[in-house]
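Lay summary. Proteins are chains of building blocks that fold into shapes, and those shapes determine what they do. In this project we predict the shape from the chain. Here is one chain we studied, written as its sequence of building blocks.
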Amino acid sequence: MSLTLVAPHTEAPAAVLAPREQEALRHIAAGRTYVQTARSMGLSKHTVDAYLRRIRAKLNINTTAEMTRLAISMGL
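And here is the predicted shape, written in a compact code that computers can read:
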């Protein structure tokens, strides 16, 4: 019996993320908190939360792990 490894499916996201959404995603994927991300971007944590909610809605994802996987696949 042999096993075949298959590369993960890496399709480009159907929705396009705005530059600030990409930046917020990059920070979260790097392990930063909403507050750390907000400080770094010069925003309130509520604005960062809004960006991340829009990302989740646009791409139909639910968890931070999925967002991190997306950021990696996008090269962020």
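What the prediction tells us: The two ends are 38 Å apart (CA to CA).
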